[in-house]
Amino acid sequence: MKDLSFVNGLARSKESSLITFDKLSRMLSADSAGEAFSLLKDYGFGKSADAGYYTEYEKLIFAENEALNEFIREYSPSKSFTAYMFLKNDFHNAEIAVRGKYVKGLNAYKADGLTEKAAITAFSEGKKADVPQYLIQPMKDADAAVKNGAGGAEVADIFVKAYYKAALKLVGGEFGEFIRKEIDFKNLSAAVRCEDVGVFRRQFISGGNVGREKFIRIAEKNYIKARNDFKYTGFSEEVDLALSAAEAGKPLVAFERYAESYPLRKLSEKKYEPSGIIPFAMYCLYKANELKNVRIIMVGKIAGLKADEIKGRLKDGYVG
Questions:
Q1: Which of 19, 23, 188, 256 lies at a 20 to 30 A Cα distance from 311?
Q2: Where does residue 204 fall: left (phi above 0), alpha (psi -120 to 50 degrees), or beta otherwise?
Q3: Is 320 helix (H, G, I), strand (E, B) or coil?
């Protein structure tokens, strides 16, 4: 195990390179995508990338993401945290590999997770490859499903459920609790959005803190009884946030932002604790959110959205 004092100190020293929310606000206020891109370059974001025009912002994000991944691989003091950060990429890449056999030109791989993309691709092509057991069965199931005419949503569902099953085994402690909470958020979102209770029953992800039957009430659009069901649980605030948006006919943007920011909020409550990997984890999560926020701002600027429209989609960022 890595020396916690060293890696936490290293993470704290890297916080000075994070783009603060004030700096993101300057990008939001920029008159154009080109001006926002220039600010990014001024901040030193993606300085190792060869990108000179605002439409090449993804090159900057890629460079920063590669640097973050290398930092985690080299210094993470916890296998559990490493899995928390990387495991989802394995399942995304496995899905792309399987679907890519049947859809020409599909190449939307993410960075290597715990498993190299090359190994996943080779296994999908029937070649000998070092692929973990948790990927083998869902890849076989997805391949069979595609051959039987399954659509993209059904194939994606196979990998989503397999991911959370594996994550609950590989990610323990506080980050394992974050996984269970994430499952609850996913189930709540699916229940609110579904138009067919039967479809929701099939989509339901096991392993969260809340059982399926409580979500069924939401899927049935019986929101009054649903609120009563959750009234004395630790999930009532989240349910009310999602249902209030649904009742108002609004998208779940605020709820989704709340859900995605949950781990950082919980870690922030403990940021001054003298032990554990919280400083290291918080830097990594802040950096991951920074990459998402840069993409949200640049996409919004290029699309000509107003600053307030973009701001509502931003994730929790580093405040300095």
A1: 188
A2: beta
A3: coil
